[in-house]
User: Fold these one by one.
Assistant:
Number 1:
Amino acid sequence: MSAVDPSIRQYVPAEPDGKDWTWVLVDRCPDCGFGADDVPAGQIAATTRDLVPRYRAALNRRDAVVRPAPTVWSVLEYGAHVRDVHRVFTERLALMLGQDDPQFPNWDQDATARADRYDLQDPGRVADELADAADAFATALDRVQGAQWQRTGRRSNGSVFTVTTLAEYYLHDVVHHLHDIGA
């Protein structure tokens, strides 16, 4: 009896998240407990690096590929998403530092999960890529100085960020998904 090739398995999307999470910049998140002012902007890079071992440990779990419910991402899928969050925010930070008030390209996290088949990726490789991407963001953030923290950028929906609020918003996403995976 031969095994079924998992790559031909039909992708079942997770429940889409259509919320505008920018409210976490002013209110504490009731789910994960994150508050935007919990970590000073100058410490977000170090905190980013400090969180990587928790993702590595979660991605090393035997059940990392198993969804807790049919439309809820597995640890693997959350790990792939967080890896891409690090990458997207590194790009957004570079735009903010290199241009005046840039508009960020749209990023559809659900479309990316489907197109890149997060569910079929290798957990060990995702852990390594997540660590590298986290370090790239942290390194870029370490280079921010003085008035650069107040440079702006915006999403297509009109939400405006400073480098400080972008970093806070980013950190909430990373912390929140640790809560989602119980790590």
Note: The first helix runs from residue 44 to 59.
Number 2:
Amino acid sequence: MLKVGIIGVGTVGTSVANILKDNKNIITARAGIEIVPTIGVVSNLNKKRDVEIKLTNNIDEVLDDPSIDIVVELMGGIEEPYKIVKKALENGKAVVTANKALLAYHRYELQELAGDSPFEFEAAVAGGIPIINALRDGLSANNIKSIQGIMNGTCNYMLTKMINEGASYDEILKEAQDLGYAEADPTFDVGGFDTAHKLLILGSIAYGIDIKPEDILIEGIQNIKQTDIEFAKEFEYNIKLLGIAKKVDNQIELRVHPVLIPLDKMIAKVDGVMNGVSVVGDKVGETMYYGAGAGGDATASAVIANIIDIARKGKGSPMLGFEKQIGVQPTLMPKDEIKTKYYLRLEVADKSGTLAKVAKVFGDNDISIENMMQKSKKEQKANLLLTTHICVEKDILKAINELENSGVVLKKPAMIRIED
């Protein structure tokens, strides 16, 4: 028998306890041993919870109990969970966590602490989608060429509704908050930070790169307008918030931002609150993973899969998939050296000479325009919408700055990167 202590009995923790009870027979058959949820830690003992396990507000009842074999950390946060998980590992317990923020900042320290002790975290990225095990085990014979992931259901839901129903960002944000998809302060989701935490975990497994969220390019969906969506439809693109990891020579691109992506790409078809991750390996080609990225039962499914895996194996495999890094270590590509295509929305003065000035700025910065569309507005203004051929991030940023000060561009230009 394996005894499990759950730290944080909220939506996911409740699902973990109840699934272990409800599906006891099939879980025992698959694990080869009975797995028993024994105790849960909560901050408020007076709050009613739909579980049948003992509840406590004393974490040490779990960490210091020699009969608890596996600690499941579901409390959220960074530094306090780090202390708790560290103590659990030091006490010889296996650990399962769904805490992407903890791993975004402390994954390498935790790998060192874990050693041969099992430490699993499938639920930390894309909820019920088994992308961690796919990368770490199923694709372990491959050099990973690229990862593109829709890993935040709130953003994907909002963009899908904006595209399909023509609603504004503010309208859909309020609806998402009313439905419980977005928090009262939605910045962590809509600002791209949630996706960034998950991308760093995948980047570590794919490339062995130790980077913090502050080191990478992160942009959210707050500035996307219906004008951008209309342009995307005209040129057969969809708009998605993607986490992108890409190997270029011996450098790794890690970035999170909205993307114009062709409609015929599989990742472009992932709509609503669903998540999807595309991984390209040098031998297997593209593989695609799709499913529920959040929710109590979906996330608990991934947590329990990790518990079963621990029951089967006993000893832990390398937490981030590398026994030892061999060869030249990859480095992070500087943000301003990224190369891709770009879409720009410019509000310009609708008068003679405007196009010539805009074209000169692009030409002076070695940027070639691929497509252009003008939409007239009132008061002698127009929206100039255009896409570029592949160019360097620092060149497009310099051009945007020059356009802003050109006298013909009336507002700060809006920019979305393109991934063909």
Note: The chain has 14 helices and 18 strands.
Number 3:
Amino acid sequence: MPVRIPDNLPAADVLESENIFVMSESRAAMQDIRPMKVLILNLMPNKIETETQLLRLLSNTPLQVDIDLLRIHDKESKHTPLDHLNTFYRDFDEVRERNFDGLIITGAPLGKLDFEEVTYWDHIKEVIDWSQTHVTSVLFLCWAAHAGLFHLYGLKREILNNKCSGVFEHTRVKAHIPLLRGFDDVFYAPHSRYAQMNVAELKAHPQLQVLAESTEAGAYLVISKDHRNLFVTGHPEYRKGTLRDEYFRDLAAGIAPQIPKNYFRNDDPNAEPVARWFGHGNLLISNWLNYYVYQLTPYDLSDLSAKTPWEQANTKVLTGHR
């Protein structure tokens, strides 16, 4: 099934050239189907690239997904045309009275900056708090995962001496979890960040579960026990060349970055990167959208309760019925 996107969104041409099924709003309006309503809060500078990466993953399921794009402020962007933002993005005031099946909050290039020093931190907190009563399930990616764990559960991140950049081996910590259905015991995922969560603190927290971790990159998948919040500390959405582009960008900026680990053939930055995460990246998003959104969300979104959907309908997930 397709992902439904606004008419004329630039990502459509890219996705269609890759034989990915997308559907315009005008075409979807002719179908009598209740699509999943997913809101994407895009904090990345190059919003068009991030949109395309996430839409690739969201389109790889049997579900029709209706996408709304959200921006945190209306300031001019150096990396995204203003007319694109004004055409395709909503301000929070436009959605605060609505309910959504899913919310994705992307990473942000904020490096080692303390959360309280981020100029739009109050806005981030407002969206996170709103999501706990207006969204069936929230997916936090990379920086957003650390921000969500800090704001919702008071857990602080640890700033690293060197950037965690590369493709790392991960293992499942938990078995028989719907999110991990189809996962291998060992799988790979890309990371690109300057901070890390303390795994012991995550495992000790009474409201959280660590589902997958890496000896090099730490915790990768963490979920709240009420199943409303999923924290992914890496980047399952990254395309093959994203880490390469980041490496050469930082090199040109004089940052002297380390070569991303387990990424280039023979660790040679001039060689072709090796993509080893596409399968599990797609499976992760597919499982999230199916088991934690579609299987739990009410048909009428106005019926969304402050009580967690998992508590209301966990038997539906276990049996596979909606």
Note: Confidence is low (pLDDT under 50) at residues 315-322.
Number 4:
Amino acid sequence: MQIIFSSNNAKKLQEVQSILSGFNVKSYRAFLDTIDIVENGVTFEENAHLKAHSIYKLLEGIEGDYCVLADDSGICVDALNAMPGIYSARFASIQEGAQEILQGCFAIPQKECSDTLNNLKLLACLEELGITQSSASFVCVIAMHARVKGVLQQRTFRGECEGKVFKAPLNPQAFGYDPLFIPKGYTLSMDHIQEKNSISHRFLALQQCKDFLESLGTANIP
């Protein structure tokens, strides 16, 4: 079965292809022009389904079975009342500071920002709160819209990786908030952990998805 990932983020696509080894995973850009999907859900689950549904509908004309996977993920920091959460990719667009964020008094961010700017925003919030670290968790929700033997299958898979964020130097080669996150049971930040793709929130969600696809007999996984 063709697996179509509804993202054009090269680093995220590489992670998905690595975790779903054995499946033929391509970006939706192999089939469609770039499209803008308004992520106006209030949970990871809602946003993931919005993306999966949008791509699935646009691909209904292709032949055979196919599976659209959409990822919505982010980091939830306890000291910030689980922010930035669903706004993780847009966190630096929030002009308000940590105190306003804690009170929920901020404008909903619209513009995606670079990993570096988002990391700097999180560090600035920690500094404003007078702390150097906080418990936190990475969350990933994978929404699946698949056509299997002509029948639509919809599922949601959620993975969480617990740990903490801390004040640390940034790594411009790293992905997302990895340089500021240490998983539970580790002493290194996520960007320095070789087995990242076997412990991450994305791995945990995709492993559930992989198990489900195998149960349908849609692929022969070595």
Note: The chain has a mean pLDDT of 92.
